[in-house]
Task: structure prediction
Amino acid sequence: MPASAICGRELVRCVTMAKPNQWFSIDLKDKQACVSEYTIKHYDSWDTEALRNWRFEGSNDGNVWILLREHVNDPVRRLC
Result:
């Protein structure tokens, strides 16, 4: 996928299988990021397409992961 699939304002539908413990990984290759804020835009029409319970993790090597933030029962927040 192009970088616009994870960064920008273009609407891109990106889903996993409807099974527990699904995940996405974004490999920054030789780059590093220090995250102070983030925004995720997603569907809210079905529970299977809306993030309600999820973890935001980071790793320097792809093997050891550090929990940066955990979301539990996130409410729907509409911007419009």
In short: The chain has one domain: 1-80.
